[in-house]
Amino acid sequence: MLIRSWDRGDEDEWRAWLAAGRDFGLLAANGPAGAGPVLVPTHFLLDADRGEILLHLATPNPLWAAVRADPHVTLAVTDDYVFAPGHWRGEPGTPTSYYASVQFHCTAEPVEDAAGKAEILNRQLAHFQPETPEVRVEPGRPPFGPLLAGLRGLRLTVREVRAKFKYDDKKPVPVQAALADRLAGRGEGLDAAARAQLLRRNARRAGGCPQT
Questions:
Q1: What distance in Å separates the CA atoms of residue 105 and residue 122, rounded to the nearest whole number?
Q2: What is the full per-residue pLDDT of the chain (212 aa) written as tens digits?
Q3: pTM score above 0.90
Q4: Distance from the Cα of residue 192 to its chain's centroid
Q5: 6 in any annotated domain
Q6: Which residue segment(s) compose the domain that 68 sits in?
């Protein structure tokens, strides 16, 4: 992913963006030579302080063969994306896309033992299903323990984080604010989410508080 100086996201920014409920991404592995990449949409649990990402996949998932061949993987999360028509952006009238994207370059480690898989599942349950604290996975005990054989856990050690918030920060602050008005006027799809990101970035540049 190309990241320009004006759309690079810092650590505080990408952490806050992900913490706002963005925990579903696309996991990519290189796979065996000549086989092509493997792409898996998946929920994940990020522990940014420990620099790790936890998830699980079904045992037949083709990702396991890919990880055995090459443990270097990338998890990408992209959201708040819209199309910006060229006539919105002034001369020369070039259309573009606005979006936020964070990519984690990681080393993958499959978790095969029952206790390790249960730990990952329980941490995911605590995150995704906190309203049922009594629902937990215990190896060998029903209802979930016997199902552990059908899946594997995956621990990703984060080696690099690359974050991009592409919202025309290279434009003058007033022009960027006018683009936010265009998004408000169109009001389709993810326009409101993209507008919020554009205004937040605009406020950072202007040294003020974002408009609503």
A1: 25
A2: 999 999 999 999 999 999 999 999 999 999 877 778 999 999 999 999 999 999 999 999 999 999 999 999 999 999 999 999 999 998 788 999 999 999 999 999 999 999 999 999 999 999 999 999 999 999 999 999 999 999 999 999 999 999 999 999 999 988 998 999 999 999 999 999 999 999 999 898 877 555 44
A3: yes
A4: 19
A5: no
A6: 11-166
